[in-house]
Design a protein that fits this description.
Helix content: 40-55%
Order of helices and strands: EEHEEHEHHEEHEEHHEHEHHHH
Distance between the termini: 15 Å
Low-confidence stretches: 1-19
Radius of gyration: 20 Å
Strand order of the largest sheet: 3-4-5-6-8-11
Strand content: 15-25%
CATH topology of the largest domain: 2-enoyl-CoA Hydratase, Chain A, domain 1
CATH architecture of the largest domain: Alpha-Beta Complex
Largest sheet: 6 strands, mixed
Number of strands: 11
CATH superfamily of the largest domain: 2-enoyl-CoA Hydratase, Chain A, domain 1
Length: 310
Amino acid sequence: MLSAIFRSSLTKFRGLWLPGQAAVRAMSSSGGPVPPFTSLVVSHPAESVTHVELHRPEKRNAMNKAFWSEMVDCFKQIAEDPDCRVVVISGAGKIFTAGIDLMDMASEVLQPEGDDTARISWNLRKTIAKYQETFSVIEKCPKPVVVAIHGACVGGGVDLITACDIRLCTQDAWFQVKEVDIGLAADVGTLQRLPKVIGSRSLVNDLALTARKMYADEAKSSGLVSRVFADKEAMMAGALEMAGEMAGRSPVAVQGTKINLIYSRDHSVAEGLDYMTMWNMSMLQTQDVMKSAQASMEKKSPKTIVFSKL
């Protein structure tokens, strides 16, 4: 389990986990990947918070063959880990990610196996579907995922961040849907998720068809990110504070909220309401509701309540 990989020091005050300097340092890339991972560093900088760091700084965190399978394995473990309630994703080194590692991936993407067009296409279809799962697994994970972006976020990086629930960035961050510059249409999530994230079809078309860079201020005003920080240290502290806020709430409520938000995004209002009815007919029977109500009557902060693992 991921809970066995790295337990870092943290600061505790009246039952709340706070983003002190020790916790922020625990989110930095002080060490390299630990088996079974070669492209990721997984740590636990605070109670119930898992930090997943893209860790190929010498390659600008470019996404190699190992990355595409390791992200799937990592998030499948996170989804089943009762000790994890919130996830933070970030990148080691100077930038968040340069996107796909073309040198490493060229043989698999550009030279698929097969004896004829049908068989080549069949194998390429399987490969693309496998890559799509790398980011879909983030969206499928019931735990909220906060992504903290600094410097460049290029190509596959945009696919990644649009699958996350909350996006933060630094003032020097920039984003680029790069795929048309390398002769293909983005095929692992950007074209499907970015229109739902930003909401402006014109802006999405602008970014996807021109491959121009979007800088932090425009990303904030368009809704791609919700907060912009002065630098990476401030952003990581903010990400950890936000994660702590969510981790301190009922996991029944938090994870149920994420699942229903995603369902409602892809369905009509009537369908979303019906799904919510079916969801809460069982989930409202949790003891967490009574605990929260009692704390409210006693004028206590929800963060003082101890909720059982889910």
